[in-house]
Design brief:
The chain has 36 helices and 19 strands. The longest helix is centred in the C-terminal third of the chain and has 20 residues. Strands 2, 7, 8, 9, 10 and 11 form a 6-stranded antiparallel sheet that branches. The chain has 4 domains: 194 residues, no CATH class; 156 residues, no CATH class; 129 residues, Leucine-rich Repeat Variant (Alpha Horseshoe), CATH 1.25.10.10; 52 residues, no CATH class. By secondary structure, the protein is of the alpha+beta class.
């Protein structure tokens, strides 16, 4: 058992030094002219987002307290003025660490510990800062039900608990990550330790100069890069109970500014104040497994993705309509926030909410913004602000606020209770959630409905983008027609998803469609174009176009290089290099991803596939077996092993792997379909028919299943059944010439 102290002194030059803060003046420069805003900000969660440790900032018990987790006893103690933690390090050895920073304040506080190469890591044992009466004032682990040790990438020393890349952007101002891929080291710097004024408003140097020269009125937004004051003027039209904005909201500047941190996203280079959010970030859509099929939050998604689904967003509501942006407090207590735009005489009544006045059920937020608790103690409200839908809960198991509160009741009880009160839902069968759920289960009947949603100008852009990506997975005529209309849409999230959805098209088709978007003004769009066109041979196209693409590819690599400390980014780099035909670079990227996360099954699969294309089947097999050891029930790994063994001299082993993969598949049809085809090709046609018939009963409109059934039935001499399957194919796709030809060939038999 070794004991040594990793001191913050070793890191002070990289972590506490100020960044190259061109244009940043510091929050103190705002105090004189904006005293009320400054005072409101003082003591806010933004102000306290990150602090140096001291008696006034450390909330936890460091008086020789201990905490036992997964066989490791962690000790929290004082060494003079230093706050110390003795816990397991990267090698599993008990080591003493000095707390470098405190992180957050309520309902929990974490502690940042230094590691080599400029890394700061967030300790997974956190302090519950809630009152003792609420269960707080205790040490607890963020993953209480998972036995995480030092070899697990979720361990506090691993990449997913790294402050430099996972936390710092949203807890400090003007962050410069400064990652060096060659040395795997950071030289991370910032202008201010916390979320200060310029974190939202942008550099204040020009604004300050204009103020000193008394010229603020002569320029837009007071010299800042972005205008955040977008609350607007709201009033109640005569006879109506819901207020309306006097002028439409023309810009997403404020919600995009908040969305920079309050969203599930990935970074794309340095932040550009005043730019489209997608010019600096890759946003997650309301898709499974992050969201329920109806868009309700499931995983921790940080508000933005749910809010942009909402009717509030569609009506022009911005964050500061409900939240005071400097104090971070709500603008009014209780239902007062909602009463700004929803007349209490109509909505804050038992006739509307069906609960006694002043009860928990009478709270607007409890019904329309139910909470989900993350990080064990941190409840987050769903900002999609929807009405409870127990009808969807009954149909597909999505949650609803009624039974989240009445947890001793059933979804059917909630639906019946609403019906008794005259509440009905006319779109139960046509709700987008039904389409997404059906599509996820491989039901082709969902495709026309998804196409309709993607083309619906009245729908939230984020929903249209989600539908577009689903269509891209399906491929076919519906997707092609829809993407033609949306590829150049004004909304960047629709444009980005449409580009991503093109993967099912041939490379020449993608090249023709996407060439005009090589210089799209939004970086997220350009990154998707680069990914889609990575396989284009530059020596075989027009020299001018080749030069454009070469510039785009260089930009893509530069952006990814900035964030190559994360396994997922290295995965993307591997795929890109593979598409470019640079197998050695792709292999290095995958190996690097696995060195950071040895449990990353997708990296094993991609690397194995790369090796297979080079004829290195034995190396590929070893990798796949490693992946299987990491996740024994991973259907994708079993499927890949099965395909690999089909090329060996052991067809029995191939069928065994493919059969296991098929048995584990609960969504879609790919593994089960391939298993059926393998049975046929390896000499078991009748067993193949059994598997295909099972799929046909589950997915009666799946065309590839029907086509296989038609062909195999004909092979087995059952022409009548073959004709029946062919007839159904023609009914499903009357313009498909191949299906028509098959039908005609079977007519005379």
């Amino acid at each position: 058992m070794s004991t040594f102290i990793l001191s913050l002194v070793l890191l002070c030059t990289s972590l506490t030094a100020l960044a190259d803060t061109a244009g940043f003046t510091g929050s103190d420069s705002c105090r004189d002219c904006h005293s009320s805003e400054y005072e409101a900000w003082q003591g806010s969660h933004h102000d306290l987002a990150m602090q140096l440790p001291g008696p006034d900032t450390v909330l936890a018990d460091f008086e020789d307290a201990t905490f036992l987790y997964n066989g490791v006893t962690t000790r929290f103690y004082r060494d003079g003025d230093k706050y110390m933690v003795r816990t397991d390090d990267e090698d599993g050895k008990l080591t003493d660490f000095e707390v470098a920073y405190v992180f957050g304040v309520y309902p929990l506080q974490q502690y940042l510990l230094p590691l080599s190469r400029g890394r700061l890591q967030a300790l997974s044992i956190a302090w519950d800062s809630r009152p003792a009466s609420a269960g707080g004032q205790r040490w607890y682990h963020l993953y209480p039900d998972e036995p995480i040790d030092h070899q697990d990438p979720l361990h506090w020393t691993g990449p997913y608990q790294n402050w430099n890349t996972r936390c710092a952007e949203c807890h400090s101002t003007d962050l410069q990550k400064n990652y060096d891929r060659q040395t795997r080291s950071f030289d991370t710097q910032y202008a201010e330790i916390d979320v200060a004024c310029e974190a939202c408003h942008g550099p204040g140097e020009r604004h300050l100069a204009l103020a000193e020269a008394d010229k603020l009125g002569s320029v837009r937004a007071g010299g800042f890069a972005t205008e955040l004051a977008q609350r607007g003027l709201w009033s109640f039209p005569e006879g109506e109970s819901i207020a309306r904005r006097s002028e439409p909201l023309e810009s997403r500047a404020q919600i995009d500014s908040c969305g920079r941190c309050h969203s599930r996203r990935g970074n794309l280079g340095d932040y550009h104040y005043g730019a489209d959010l997608l010019d600096t970030h890759r946003l997650s859509l309301p898709q499974s497994p992050l969201y329920h099929y109806d868009g309700q939050i499931l995983d921790e998604v940080y508000v933005y993705g749910s809010f942009v689904q909402s009717k509030m967003h569609q009506a022009g509501v911005v964050c500061s309509n409900c939240h005071e942006p400097h104090s971070n407090n709500l603008r009014a207590p209780g239902n007062g926030v909602c009463a700004q735009c929803h007349k209490p005489a109509t909505y804050d009544t038992p006739e509307h909410h069906f609960h006694p006045t002043q009860s928990s059920g009478a709270s607007c937020a409890n019904c329309h913004m139910p909470e989900t608790t993350y990080m064990v103690v941190d409840p987050r409200r769903d900002h999609s602000m929807r009405v409870p839908r127990p009808d969807l809960s009954v149909m597909m198991g999505t949650p609803n606020a009624c039974t989240q509160c009445h947890d001793d009741k059933t979804d059917q009880w909630a639906l019946d209770a609403l019906r008794e009160r005259g509440v009905g839902f006319r779109d139960t069968g046509s709700h987008p959630a039904r389409s997404f759920a059906a599509f996820d289960q491989g039901d082709a009947r969902a495709i026309p409905r998804l196409s309709q949603l993607a083309n619906d100008e009245s729908a939230a852009p984020v929903w249209r983008a989600t539908a577009m990506e689903a269509l891209g997975q399906a491929g076919g005529r519906e997707a092609t027609q829809t993407m033609a209309a949306l590829l150049y849409h004004d909304d960047s999230i629709i444009r980005t998803s449409t580009v991503r959805s093109l993967q099912f098209l041939s490379l020449p088709q993608r090249f023709q469609l996407l060439t005009p978007l090589i210089d799209d003004p939004v970086l997220a769009v350009r990154m998707e174009v680069a990914t889609s066109l990575a396989a284009v041979p530059l020596d075989q196209i027009d020299p001018k176009q080749a030069e454009q693409l070469r510039g785009l590819f260089n930009e893509y690599l530069a952006v990814q290089e900035q964030h190559s400390d994360m396994p997922g980014v290295l995965m993307q780099l591997g795929l890109f290099h593979s598409s470019r035909g640079d197998a050695p670079a792709a292999e290095r990227a995958y190996q690097e991803a696995l060195s950071l996360n040895h449990q990353l099954v997708a990296a094993y699969l991609n690397l194995a596939d790369l090796l297979r294309t080079q004829g290195r089947d034995e190396e590929a097999r070893k990798l796949l077996l490693k992946a299987l050891a990491v996740a024994p029930d991973n259907g994708n790994t079993l499927h890949a092993l099965g395909l690999l063994e089909t090329r060996s001299e052991d067809p029995g082993k191939a069928l065994d792997y493919l059969g296991q993969a098929a048995s584990l598949e609960t969504r879609g049809t790919r593994h089960r379909f391939v298993y059926a085809i393998a049975l046929h090709d390896l000499g078991q046609p009748r067993e193949a028919m059994v598997e295909l018939n099972k799929l046909n009963r589950l997915f009666p409109s799946d065309e590839q299943v029907l086509l296989a059934l038609a062909n195999y039935s004909a092979e087995l001499g059952d022409t009548a059944k073959a004709r029946g399957y062919a007839d159904k194919l023609v009914r499903l796709a009357p313009r498909n010439a191949n299906y028509q030809q098959l039908q005609q060939s079977l007519q005379g038999k």
